[in-house]
Structure formats: C-alpha cells, structure tokens
Amino acid sequence: MKILALTIALAAHTAAAADLPCGLGAPPGTKEFAARRAREGDEVAHKGYLAVCDANLERYDVRAHLKPLTSASKGLAFKPVELAGTPFARWQALGGLPETVGEVPSRFYRGFRDPKGRTVTLFEHDMSADGTSAYRDPKDEPERVNGLPARLVVLQSPSKAVSVLIWTEGRRAYELWIDANVVLDRSRQEMFALAASLPKAIPARPNAPTPAPPMLGPDGLPIIQPPVPPKN
After folding, report:
1. pLDDT value at position 24?
2. Which one of 18, 140, 184, 215 is separated from 228 by 20 to 30 angstroms, measured CA to CA?
C-alpha cells in the first residue's frame, strides 16, 4: 500500500511539473502569447509569484562563469557602481563576469554570498557606453526603487526559486537577483532596501544623447532600432 501511495504521489508530482511553463513560449503578437501573459498575470496576482520549470531558472545562475573581480572588471567600458557603504561590501564576493553588446563591454555581473547563504547577483548595463536603449511598459513597473519605476519578478520551480528586481537609472539598467522566493520567505522589503542602498551611477558617456521614445508596434511592443555606436 505504501509503495502504491508513493507511486501515485510521484506520478502526480511529475504531471504537475510537466504542466509548468517552460521556455519562451509563443512569440509576441500571437493569441497564444496574449493568453499565456493573461494566465501568468492571474497567477502572480493570486500567489505573488510564478511557477515555472527548473530550466527557466538556469539563466539566473552565473556562478560557474564568475572570475576574480579585479581581472573581470578590467577593460569595462564603464565604471560599475561603487558598493562601499552598502551591504554588498560586507558580504563574501564570488567574482564578476563582463559581457559585451556588439563589441562594447558594457554589461557586468557581480556575485555575492549574503549572511543567509543566498547567492545575490547584481547586474549592470551602461547603455550610454554602447548606444542602446530600453523600453518597458509602465504598467509592468508598479514598484519603486529610490523613486524610479521598477518591476519585481518572482519565479518558483519545483526545486529552486529566484527573485529578480529590475529598474533603470538614467542610462544605467540594473537587475538584482536573489536565489530565493522573497514572497514566501517574507524578505521582499529586504530586497528593495538592498537595491535602494546603491549610490548614483556615473555614466560612461554623460553627454550621450537621450534616445527618442520608441515606436510601438500593433502588439504594443517597441520596434527595435539598431543601436547608435558611440563616437570616439
């Protein structure tokens, strides 16, 4: 009887996992995309987070690619925000990871271990360095970080979780990742305080022209324009 009960439980768990959203899904502008967005919106409104498959969280784990901060930050096209005086400065540094847009090293990840043993990743993208721009629907940014529009995304898979806070200060885009469900463990306020502790960023090109507002397509998404390369 115990074996039968265990078999039924495992089968139910497998079936539930198989029903979880996995991958990018249908492309924007399709009925399937709109239906999935609506389902996800209802789920987040009800639970505060979105259930996904394990594979959807893999992109938020860059620990295996981190290198010592000194070497990882060499050659960056911008100065990462200063962390002295923030909680990050007191935590174990796991390393950094540069990333290029085109041929410009304008993106940088820094990993940390906080006192709770969680992995915390701070991502920065200086768009003034590479000439790119970003757009998000204001309706998707109901939160605030130092008065700036922000979006919190909490993803829960069968075996792990990640909470992602996204905001932009001028031409500097930020993402803060914590490998925990801040809704379930009630550390949401702590995450926002950590983001708010960051000082103002110094743009790579302070006089870079501000891109014009993007044109929106019939699906409400911006029409992507090629980046304007920075002038030497």
Report:
1. 72
2. 140
Q: What is the Cα–Cα distance from 146 to 18, expressed in whole angstroms?
A: 40
E strand residue ranges, 31-183 = 50-51, 92-101, 104-113, 119-126, 143-145, 148-156, 161-169, 172-178
CA distance 202 to 80: 8
Percent of the chain with pLDDT over 90: 67
> Which residues, at least 6 apart from 141, have a Cβ–Cβ distance to it below 8 Å?
149, 150, 151, 167
Looking at residue 54, its amino acid is D
Cα gap 123→204, rounded to integer Å: 16
Dihedral (CA of 18, 19, 21, 27) sign: positive
* Closest to 20 in 3D by CA, of 59, 47, 51: 51
Predicted confidence (pLDDT) at residue 231 exceeds the cutoff of 80: no
Residue that the structure tokens 């990840």 belong to? 109
Tokens of 109: 């990840």
Weakest-pLDDT range from 1-5, 63-67, 171-175, 192-196: 1-5
Q: Which two tokens stand for residue 204?
A: 């790579």
